[in-house]
Fold each of these.
Amino acid sequence: MRNKTIFICDDDRGITEMLEIVFQLSSMDVVVENNSVLAYEAIAQIKPDVLIVDLWMPVISGDLLIKKMKGNVNLKEIFVICMSASRNGEKIAIEAGADLFIAKPFDLDDILLAVDGALSAT
């Protein structure tokens, strides 16, 4: 049985490095992409179990990435957790097709619980 794969896309390297360490400790395969322009092709190739994506990133925002994924029959089943410090971030994320929204700054336990829940649902 293969390990579950978590794909993290955030332009903040501090966040991606911290999450990568935490999920690797949980015996999950972790893929990190800090450049949102490269994320879609990587997601399409890897087909992770869960995508954790920041809403506000340069060039391609998280909501555009989510919409593009959800429009692809091969990717639309991927569980998407969207994060943002924006006040109206939750509305934008859910309208784009995110399965769950987590406000920044986030509690690490909230992210772990969200991923565990997503993985048990897949």
Amino acid sequence: MIKIIQETTDYLKNKGFDNPEIGIILGTGLGQLLDKITIIKEVSYNHIPNFPTATVEFHTGKLIYGTLVGKKVIVMQGRFHLYEGYSLTDVTFPVRIMHALGIQKLLVSNAAGAVNLNFKKGELMLIDDHINLQGGSPLAFKGVEKLGERFTDMSAPYNATMNASLEKIATTHGIHLHKGVYASVVGPQLETRAEYRYIKLIGADAVGMSTVPEIIVANHLKLPVSAISVLTDECDPDNLAPVDIPEIIAMAAKAEPNMITLFTELIKTI
């Protein structure tokens, strides 16, 4: 793994990915942030040695390097998921690469369903904690201790300082920002009514198919991280409508500007 990380890092450094400060992972249907970035270099995932390739049609699949509000950033335009057939090691490999390139903070976004029915589609949720329902760990491989502490502490996986700043920014800009627990499932199928009831019962406020593996690896690397869910649908088991993927993507695009404000204002301060 160390050799593979070095090979990929060297390739990107040679492409001009020079001392980035902040990494950003963009979730499903979320890409408008790129309009705010002065792009210096971009590389398709399928050109990067050892990188997986995004297979979801609304995940573009590029690693982008540039500046945002005066800071050097790396942006993953499109992420990887277990449901695409990748391993948890594959899914989290880009986090290790961004860390090896030098990022000091990581910001993550995703599209999620609101299980807490006080939360509405089109709103945002700051992730305060999570529940891993993906049935595995990205740290469960031989030699992981060479990359960081095997028994990684997860008592506070989301950085309290950055989260407090995001809440303050939301108040300042009049953005309705919930705070809650995110449950991560494998997918790609959506949940049944019974599964939504279960997810709510165990304490989750939102559910999605990503993010938790990347957060675990960020903590393994002692990389401060914050994450925001864009709530794209309401998961009411007593009034559950068939899934409408185009509507979910449209709702993500509608809610995204508020997420962009939160991220850009935070980046100014870190």
Amino acid sequence: MKIKLTSYLFVFLYIIAMLRPIAPFVEYAINYDYIAKVLCINKDNPELNCNGKCQLMEKLKQQEEDDFNSLRIHMEEYPIGFVRVLKLENEPVTTSIQKNKFHYKVDYSYLFYQSVFHPPSV
């Protein structure tokens, strides 16, 4: 029972995470009248037929920036115990070619017989 409940919880959280990108569209559809009449930037220009889409685009852009910024991790902000973040310089990588140290000798030979072997008959 506990495992089933936990799995339902994770499925629910996964669905919420997948629906997050369409949240501004849902909010726009629910508050369409308020956004079109009050929040719209282009309400002075009715020939543009914006109807609050400018606000929708701003929210989409803001959500995209928030998603991008949330993915960034600065190691200085997350120290791991006594380990310090090292700044490594790009040094040229030198590779050496190692020769094989074994010798393979072909001692195989194939003898082709024309006759086919038949077991003795009783």
